[in-house]
Write a structure and sequence with these properties.
By secondary structure, the chain is mainly α. The protein is about 70% helix and about 5% strand. The protein starts with 9 loop residues before the first helix and ends with a helix.
Length: about 475
Amino acid sequence: MSPTVPTAAAPLLASADAHAVDTGTTLVFAAVLVALIVCLALEEKIHAKKSFIAGTFAMLSLLMAMIFHIEPGTAEVHVLDETLTIPIYIPAIDWGVIAIILGSSLFVDVTSKSGLFTWIAIRLTKASAGDPVRLLWFYGLMTVGFSAVLNNVTAMIIVGSLTGVSLRKLERESQLLGFLLIEGLLTNIGGLLTLISSVPNIIVGTAAGISFVGFFVAAAPFVVLATVVTLLLGGRLFGIRKLSTDAERAEAAELVSGFDENDGIESRGFFYFGAAMLVLFIVVIATTSVLPFVSELGMGYVALTFAVIMLARYKATVDTYYRALDWDLLGFFAALFIVINVMEHAQVLALIGRGLAAIIDLGDVLGTALVLVASAAFSSVTDNIPLAAMLAKILGQLGKPSDSPLWWSVVFGANLGGNLTPIGSASTLVAVTIMHKNRLQVSFAGFVVKALPYALVQIVLATLYVLLVLA
């Protein structure tokens, strides 16, 4: 799992790791984690929503944690001058991610009422001359760019909305699944571009002493290569081809000429306001970490604030937007964070970390390659933040220099692992949610089957890049 911001409760929860946990107990909880993954893979068969499945395992994990005495039932949180005693599962949830998803969803939904996204989509459609391949590249590059400066969840929400509008107007809804899947995968590639694009980048880059510029210079060539390969492969596997005949081009040109980007604009003033707020939203989100006061509140606060500002226009009917929220997605994330937190206390993540430490001892070439692949595999089903933190600590203890390719193995593996499963990253999960909203039924297993070719190619390319270029 790849959330986009760290929690303020991390130090509090980490202190609970002092509880001794025997290997047998750890293996029991590891079996529970495996069972959760299996149930999510079979969600269509068992006719249950993701939030219900994850919620059931969250309740089971918490009860087991109390029975095995691996974490306290309550935690103390210091807020200003007050000390609050709250159930342990409250700080276990990464409320920053929840706030980002909630705020971004509301912001995008309300902003779309201004006609802004329709306008952008039609302008891009016109620029593509109705050619599906050109449109795929436009949206793909925009996805990578947004993911590099925004969190990948917000990037997926914005680009996914634009994609749906464009393909419906171009009468190519049959290609929507391919577009959304490719965009979901590209969010995790874009997350590799800079030191601040994802939390694992920050954790590993800081521990290794890699500068912002140094990180960008090292990662940028791979991001360009992976983006191009993913778009080429996506066009081929999903049958997204260029318009090859004069008749096709003429038909597309006629269809595009009938588009009017101003059709969805009911109020020119609200349109310009929405455009200004979108630009400001991107700028503030991208600079949250350096803004006074706001940096302490985080990107979730920024997303919620912009949502409130946009909702002011519809203050008497805001309940309409609340009902349109994907509560299944929010519930799933909250429950999944609880499960992962219990697994951390049960030393399941530590067990994974020890296994990877043994791999490192296999040698520079083999160890580096296996660390990348193993990091990707584990990040596809569990939180990549504690995993990255554990591996960064291990590499630091081993005295690995900042130019060691092992640091990059962890960075690439932690980010690209999110493309292996729909729960591998927040953005791929959002991509699946957008698919469902557009009546495209994609199960857990179905996503894995469709995404696997891309993920394997990306991981192979990353392994070769680390060994041949960064080593």
